[in-house]
Specification:
The longest helix has 23 residues. β1, α1 and β2 form a beta-alpha-beta unit. It contains 14 helices and ten strands. Helices cover 48% and strands 13% of the residues. The mean pLDDT is 97. It is of the alpha/beta class and 329 residues long. Bound molecules: 1,4-dihydronicotinamide adenine dinucleotide and 1,3-dihydroxyacetonephosphate (13P). 1,3-dihydroxyacetonephosphate binds next to α7, α10 and α11.
Length: 329
């Protein structure tokens, strides 16, 4: 049986990890990066020294700065930051084959136009079949061959199944879904809540507070998801609860580590450590979406207020604890 051909857009940590997954059982997986110097460094060292030092590119992975590398690919994995997705999708349009699957692997919401990634792709790539891959999966873990499972959603179940088959390995196990929006909401929101969890850790509020915060974050995530039409089983699954638990519980998460530094007193502008923290880009648009849907998200709002310097971490903690007592929901 011939395997679907796969190309990867974006050669950061997650792009490299997914290219290595795709390389299993394939002889060539083009890996596109927008920066020619980065491509040269990948070719020379056969690893992403900045984001995944010591973890080599699989032999089949071919770095390139030429977007035409996606011509003929049946599956394209889009692994660039969420705020760059529109530009990359637009640039890919002349090269993408009709009916190719365009799998969104970024976790975020477009700030300027308040769009989910699947909406961005529908607007920019009318010939594509959009899909979303999300779930608990640190790039370094996946690159090391440590096991995990993720959700892979496409509108047609048959395509979701085909994508799962194309991307599954002995240690990387995708579960299929047709709930793209549900998968996207979980992936975008968990980054914002991971910042909150990091702050609680940085402030040394204790393990009980940590668990309470995760549970109340999940309540906010499900409230928004249901209001926007996501399915409960998606929100409770790998891309929702699964990724929330991972990212809110580990300093390996860049969003959590960012929150930790904020909790220890760093200013928002200095707290990323030069790393991509998608939650910082998503917090405000997530809160705006929730308000538009009439959904209360006090933890997400607190993160947004702290990032915009409207509130200190301590004042936000006090405000959350002083909210009127209510039924659990
Ligand atoms: N690192 C991880 O463990 C995981 C990351 N993700 C998601 O994948 C997405 C990408 O994250 P990472 O690869 O980890 O980030 P990264 O910071 O390691 O890499 C991002 C890459 O995108 C490139 N880039 C930046 N702006 C660009 C533009 N305008 N056009 C094209 N390329 C551009 C950068 O040069 C860099 O190589 C994010 O949305 C993240 O939430 C999802 C699951 C796991
Ligand atoms: O999404 C991730 C793991 O599933 C990676 O999380 P961070 O972007 O917070 O590092």
């Amino acid at each position: 049986m011939t395997r679907d051909s796969i190309a990867v857009l974006g050669a950061g940590a997650w792009g490299v990890a997914l290219a290595n997954v795709a390389a299993q059982g394939r002889t060539r997986v083009p890996l596109w990066a927008h920066d020619a110097a980065h491509v040269a460094a990948l070719e020379q060292h056969r690893e992403n020294r900045r984001h995944l030092p010591g973890l080599p590119l699989a032999c089949a992975v071919t770095p390139t700065a030429d977007l035409a590398c996606i011509r003929g690919a049946e599956i394209v994995l889009a692994v660039v930051p969420a705020q760059a997705m529109r530009d990359v999708a637009r640039a890919a349009r002349p090269h993408l084959a009709d009916g190719a699957a365009f799998v969104i692997c970024a976790k975020g919401i477009e700030r300027d136009r308040r769009r989910f990634m699947s909406e961005v792709v529908a607007e920019e790539l009318p010939q594509a079949k959009p899909a979303v891959l999300s779930g608990p999966s640190f790039a370094a873990d996946v690159c090391k061959g440590l096991p995990t499972a993720v959700t892979l959603a496409a509108q047609e179940e048959s395509l979701a199944q085909r994508l799962c088959e194309a991307l599954s390995t002995k240690t990387f196990r995708p579960y299929r879904s047709t709930d793209l929006l549900g998968v996207e909401i979980g992936g975008a929101a968990k980054n914002v809540f991971a910042i909150a969890a990091g702050m609680a850790s940085g402030r040394e509020l204790g393990a009980s507070a940590q668990a309470a915060l995760i549970a109340r974050s999940f309540a906010e995530l499900t409230r928004l998801g249901r209001a926007l039409g996501a399915r409960s089983e998606t929100l409770m699954g790998l891309s929702g609860l699964g990724d929330l638990v991972l990212t809110c519980g580990s300093a390996q998460s860049r969003n959590f580590a960012f929150g930790q530094r904020l909790g220890r007193g760093a200013a928002a502008k200095d707290a990323s450590g030069g790393k991509l923290t998608e939650g910082a880009f998503t917090a405000h648009v997530l809160v705006e979406m929730a308000k538009a849907a009439g959904v209360e998200m006090p933890i997400a709002e607190a993160v947004d207020d702290i990032l915009a310097a409207r509130l200190s971490v301590d004042a936000a903690i006090d405000a959350l604890l002083m909210r009127p007592l209510k039924a659990e929901s």
